[in-house]
């Protein structure tokens, strides 16, 4: 067997036996905007909000699933446990809106 | 305070309309003064609410107003210092302050839920008026790009507060 084939087979085996590595998806808050406004993630991933504003914000799920307090110039995060699309907003500035789309 | 400010702004629009209509658009030093005054008015209103209200949600809202508007004014002062602009008093700022004082006097006579409702209603109206003044007059008139950008962010903050106040008003019903 060629070394390339062995390597490929090994990757296939690894891919099947080890779950995909959980990722951290970053959402920046700058001048009252969530960037990106729509974040794509998978179950098990972490969403981290980076608040660049000098104002306090929140990332509050409309369905009540989570509520992250984001102090001025501080970060906050959640680990996504369920698949689905969740709309969220800032409790202090409800005109700030974002969405997290979580796939299994 | 916000309600007061909105009332102020409404009055402001009426009082200052002729000046603006004659092509005397506010200068950057005047705009800086108006923006600072508008913020300060909302802080004073919030402090009145904190002194009078026992409602948890109203108090939390007032605390948010003090925190946000203090921060905005800190940034505004840092910018005018950097730009070497001296904020200049003007009829619009004076009209705002006068209207706010009248509103504060009115609110001082109210207590309990009546005060809470009037304060929050005032906040909604005040923020709407400031939004309008920012959109139609202050932002278009600002010539310095950094001042314009600060006002644009200020508009988003005021719009956010207006929606926040609307949520509080809905909960008070």
Give the proportion of residues in helices of chain A.
10-25%
Supply the helix-strand structural class of chain A: mainly beta
CATH superfamily of chain B: Ferritin, core subunit, four-helix bundle
Shape-level CATH architecture of chain A: Sandwich
What is the count of DSSP helices of chain A, taking H or I runs of 4+ residues? 1
Low-pLDDT runs of chain A = none
* H-E order of chain A: HEEEEEEEEE
Helix content class of chain B: over 70%
Report the major sheet of chain B. none
Q: What does it look like?
A:
The complex is a heterodimer of chains A (104) and B (173). Chain A has 104 residues and is mainly beta. Chain A has one domain (21-103): Immunoglobulin-like, CATH 2.60.40.420. Chain A is 14% helix and 46% strand. In chain A, strands 3-9-8-5-6 form a five-stranded mixed sheet, with no helix packed on it. Chain A has a four-stranded mixed sheet with strand order 2-1-4-7, with no helix packed on it. The longest helix of chain A has 15 residues, at 3-17. Chain A is globular and about 35 Å long. The relative contact order of chain A is 0.22. With 173 residues, chain B is mainly α. Chain B has one domain (2-12, 27-172): Ferritin, core subunit, four-helix bundle (Ferritin, Up-down Bundle). The A-B interface holds A 31-32, 54-56, 72, 90-96 and B 64, 67-68, 71, 74-75, 152-153, 156-157, 159-161, 163-164, 167.
What's the arrangement of secondary structure elements?
The complex is a heterodimer of chains A (104) and B (173).
Chain A: H1 3-17, E1 24-30, E2 33-35, E3 38-42, E4 46-51, E5 57-61, E6 67-70, E7 75-79, E8 84-89, E9 97-103
Parallel strand pairs in A: 1-4, 3-9
Antiparallel strand pairs in A: 1-2, 4-7, 5-6, 5-8, 8-9
Chain B: H1 2-21, H2 28-52, H3 56-83, H4 91-108, H5 112-141, H6 145-172
Helix pairs in contact in B: 1-2, 1-4, 1-5, 2-3, 2-4, 2-5, 3-6, 5-6
């Amino acid at each position: 067997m060629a070394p390339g084939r062995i390597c490929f087979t090994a990757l296939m085996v690894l891919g099947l036996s080890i779950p995909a590595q959980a990722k951290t998806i970053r959402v920046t808050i700058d001048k009252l905007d969530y960037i990106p406004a729509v974040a794509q993630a998978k179950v098990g991933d972490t969403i981290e909000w980076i608040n660049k504003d000098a104002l306090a914000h929140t990332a509050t799920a409309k369905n009540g699933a989570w509520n992250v307090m984001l102090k001025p110039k501080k970060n906050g995060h959640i680990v996504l446990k369920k698949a689905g699309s969740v709309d969220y907003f800032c409790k202090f500035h409800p005109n700030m809106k974002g969405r997290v789309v979580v796939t299994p | 305070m916000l309600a007061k400010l909105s009332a102020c702004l409404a009055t402001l629009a009426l009082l200052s309309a002729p000046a603006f209509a004659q092509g005397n658009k506010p200068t950057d030093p005047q705009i800086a003064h108006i923006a600072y005054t508008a913020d300060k008015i909302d802080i004073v209103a919030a402090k009145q609410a904190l002194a009078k209200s026992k409602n948890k949600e109203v108090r939390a809202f007032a605390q948010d107003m003090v925190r946000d508007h203090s921060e905005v004014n800190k940034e505004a002062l840092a910018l005018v210092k950097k730009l070497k602009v001296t904020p200049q008093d003007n009829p619009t700022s004076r009209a705002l302050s006068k209207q706010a004082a009248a509103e504060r006097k009115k609110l001082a006579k109210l207590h309990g839920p009546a005060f809470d409702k009037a304060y929050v209603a005032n906040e909604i109206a005040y923020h709407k008026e400031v939004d309008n003044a920012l959109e139609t007059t202050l932002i278009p008139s600002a010539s310095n790009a950094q001042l314009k950008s600060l006002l644009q962010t200020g508009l988003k903050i005021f719009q956010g507060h207006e929606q926040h106040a609307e949520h509080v008003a809905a909960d008070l019903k």
